[in-house]
Amino acid sequence: MPQQEKDIQGIHEERTIWRGRGALIAVSTWGLVAVLVDVWMFKESLFALGTILMFGVGVMPLLFLLTKNRWKRGVITIVNFILTLCAAWIQSPKSY
Q1: 80 and 67 Cβ atoms separated by less than 8 Å
Q2: DSSP state, 44?
Q3: Cβ(35)–Cβ(51) below 8 Å
Q4: Measured at the alpha carbon of residue 35, what is the angle toward residues 33 and 39, in degrees to the nearest 5?
Q5: How far apart are CA 58 and CA 62, in angstroms?
Q6: Closest listed residue to residue 49, CA positions, set 96, 95, 90
Q7: Long-range Cβ contact pairs of 27-36 (< 8 A, separation 24 or more)
């Protein structure tokens, strides 16, 4: 592969990694803002099940970013997936 193509591939890889980090920060912000809105606007208890789940959803992406170990990142991903499913199931209206 010519050097120019390798350089372009490296640039695309760096952009993809940066966008992934940005997405994780956005998801984390969403979860933590949801906790603040629940507690401040809706006067929900800080220890309510929905608030705790959303706190977990907000913290897990930050833990992923701070961890370099692939095995730990895999565990964090699975836990975050389960927390997100539980939060969606518990907090969605029962009419669905």
Answers
A1: no
A2: -
A3: yes
A4: 120
A5: 7
A6: 90
A7: 27/57, 27/58, 27/61, 28/58, 28/59, 28/60, 28/61, 28/62, 29/58, 30/58, 31/55, 31/56, 31/57, 31/58, 31/59, 31/61, 32/58, 32/59, 33/58, 34/58
Kindly report, residue by residue over 30-82, the tens digit of the pLDDT.
999 999 999 999 999 999 999 999 999 999 999 999 999 999 999 999 999 99
- The pLDDT of residue 95 is 53
Backbone angles phi, psi at 69, to 5 degrees: -70, 125
Number of C-beta neighbours around residue 79 at 10 A: 14
- Tell me what percent of the chain is helix, strand and coil, each rounded to the nearest 5: 80, 0, 20
- Name the DSSP class of 68: -
pTM of the predicted protein model: 0.78
- What is the per-residue pLDDT for 25? 94
